[in-house]
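My current task is to audit a protein record that another person submitted. What it holds is a sequence and that sequence's fold in token form. Thanks in advance; the entry in question is below.
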Amino acid sequence: MAVKVEMPKLSDTMEEGVIAKWNVEEGDKVESGDVIAEVETDKATMEVEVFDGGTILKILFGEGEAVPLGRTMAVIGEEGEDISGLLEDEGGEEASGEESSGSEEDGSEETAEKESDGAPSPAPSTDAGGNGRPAGGNGRIKASPLARRMAEERGIDLGRVSGSGPEGRIVKKDIESYEPAAAPMAPVSAEDKEYRVSQMRKTIARRLAESKFSSPHYYETIDIDMEATWSARKQLVDSADEKISFNDIIVKACAAALRRHPQVNSSWKGDTIVEHGGVHVAVAVAIDEGLVTPVIQNTDRKGLLQISRETRELADKARDRNLQPEEMEGSTFTVSNLGMFGIEEFTAIINPPNACILAVGAIRDVPVVKDGEVVPGKRMKVTLSSDHRIVDGATAARFLNTLKEMLENPLGMLL
């Protein structure tokens, strides 16, 4: 008996998923536990397994298409089984075919080309120019959605790229290795471009809008003398023979300061305010789709080396889109650092349900007055964004002064 493979709920905030990759084609045999697709959610790219074995009788959505939660992605059953009744429930076979082939950007022409009886597709044709580039039945070039997006971002003409994927399909590595031939400068196009909004970007937009307009933000900035931290970091790097960043030290200092000021380590729950027993600091990481915030669990209980290693590991996973939802949940405070981009000072939007977020600027070489003399100094500005429903101005100021004291006397914090 044929069964539906529905879009599963892969994260707590997920409303729809985008088919990033199909690992099967119509007519393929699968067994229980096989991973048939990779789905882009609002937090990460996740694998979809099947619970029933059989033959893939129908794929209803192509790569790059958004599938609402609970909607049928594919149908599995016995080879040759009549599934017209199931397809009628999904709006009919004709409608599903239109859904699979209607978008110019989703790379779903391969699904539309497949015959309904599972027969193999004809060999790919080539373009009229004789470049041997693979094209679908409608003359379009075959390329994965990621390859198309990368080509658009880099201004690469897909017609000049040789594909190394199945049936000559252009994939990510073909774009990465492409070297364009020298050509005369062409005028810059003034045409607008539209890009599909990823599930992650949609969620970031929604959460930040909710945070900004539902939480009464206010901001306090303090200037910190970083001479002692600069020297301490150099000694730590030399002795540990590992890369410890200034951000690692700042995260450690924030965790220690949060223990002294539990009001800052809190969340608004409507009728109550929760002071969290654990200190879990999230670190903002920039990726193509926006910012993600992996969490260092129990940050106050960990040493600098452990914080540094976990931060690097989570940041690498974030950039590779391999972060799991549980690695981005449960934060009680967030640090966002733009100092490496030369930004001296900025304000950040609170990452709900946190009460505060710390925006960290660059360490600046500036003249300072010490003992009545002007000498070179290293200063850094940090700005705390606070939810006024939870944290009052004086509380935020005390937290910032504790943080300042720790960074200006880092050896006491590290003991």
Summary: Residues 92-138 have pLDDT under 50 and may be disordered.
